[in-house]
Design a protein that fits this description.
The protein has 354 residues and is an all-alpha fold. It contains 14 helices and no strands. α7 packs across α10.
Length: 354
């Protein structure tokens, strides 16, 4: 067998294994979603759910959605700030469509496809490098994790009567340590590592090993963007924006708690929001169906709500977060087809060469 055929067979085998792993991850996500929803269905009485929803005061949902809109406005401003910090010339309005479009894709497709598209597809449409977009996404996730965990801890400290299960406290502490250490390493070492990787890239051999140099250069550029985005003044501004992001999100949860007639202070809404949002880290079907509902259900039950109120809150809070952002993102994609221009151009190039 020729060397070319051997390489081709290896590539096919790798592709098959990758496809199998993808299907297994998707299957596991569906199984987790089904188990979470099944547990809730086993614990509730449908008459209680209908009664809770019929007594809900819908005006509170309007206020909650306005608060959520404010939070997402801060998200877009924060992303634009991250891109500008890396030296990209871009205005906030240019970031609206790609950001909302990626959220809609995350909500409807598995494995956070929206994040991948925002990092590698949408940047071409707004004049941003893929490496810079990837760096901004990673920084965004790290800051979100730390801010969300801080919200949870502050909410618990203000509300001493609320006690989390031991496993959830352990998870929160572990995530805090992981996020804090990672952010500190990015803050302290990204500049040095960037220069080191770029120096190695220049020294890398050309010819057949040119790919190694490209990878090293890409890592150097990525770490350089981290260095620019993690400067102290930028971090302070990003942290302030992140606080406003989660205040806006917590406003939706607080409005829903009030709408169901549950006695709830703002810190209670912060705790429920943090628990429900952290649950989206678990594998699930698209839209975080299942884990989000179970986390919201458990949080309301822990705060003294009935099973019917907890289940109703879980469904309505998920719809409140998922539906408006999905619709807004779908409209952003519909009215900005140029977002997928790089994919279309690549497809046309492949078609012309075949």
């Amino acid at each position: 067998m020729s060397l070319h055929k051997t390489k081709k067979n290896k590539v096919k085998l790798i592709a098959k294994k990758a496809k199998l792993r993808k299907w297994l991850r998707n299957l596991m996500g569906v199984a987790v979603s089904g188990a979470c929803l099944g547990f809730i269905a086993w614990r509730i009485d449908l008459d209680e759910v209908r009664n809770a929803i019929s007594n809900f005061q819908w005006i509170y949902l309007v206020w909650g959605l306005l608060s959520l809109m404010g939070g997402y406005s801060m998200r877009i401003i924060r992303w634009a700030t991250l891109l500008k910090a890396s030296g990209t010339r871009i205005n906030i309005s240019a970031c609206i469509a790609p950001f909302l479009g990626s959220i809609a894709l995350n909500n409807t497709l598995p494995m956070r496809v929206g994040d991948v598209v925002r990092a590698f597809v949408f940047p071409s449409a707004i004049g941003v490098g893929k490496t810079t977009a990837t760096g901004s996404l990673v920084m965004e996730r790290l800051i979100d994790l730390m801010t969300l965990l801080a919200c949870l801890m502050i909410g618990l400290s203000i509300s001493p009567t609320t006690k989390l299960p031991e496993w959830l406290e352990t998870t929160a502490v572990s995530l805090s340590v992981f996020g804090g250490v990672t952010l500190m390493l990015v803050f302290l070492l990204s500049g040095r590592l960037s220069r080191w990787f770029i120096r190695l890239a220049k020294q890398a051999p050309s010819g057949e090993d040119a790919g190694r140099g490209k990878i090293l250069k890409m890592l150097g550029i990525l770490l350089s963007s981290f260095d620019a985005m993690s400067r102290l003044p930028v971090l302070i501004w990003l942290t302030s924006l992140s606080v406003l992001v989660w205040v806006g999100e917590a406003g939706l949860f607080w409005a829903l708690l009030l709408g169901f007639g549950l006695v709830a202070a703002p810190e209670t809404a912060v705790i429920v929001m943090a628990i429900a949002t952290l649950s989206t880290l678990a594998p699930s079907s698209p839209g975080y169906v299942g884990p989000f509902h179970l986390a919201a259900y458990a949080a309301i039950s822990m705060l003294g709500g009935t099973p019917g109120e907890a289940a109703s809150f879980a469904v309505l809070s998920h719809l409140g977060v998922w539906l408006p952002t999905t619709l807004a993102g779908a409209l952003a994609i519909l009215f900005n087809p140029q977002l997928f221009g790089s994919v279309k151009a690549k497809a046309e190039t492949i078609e012309s060469t075949n």
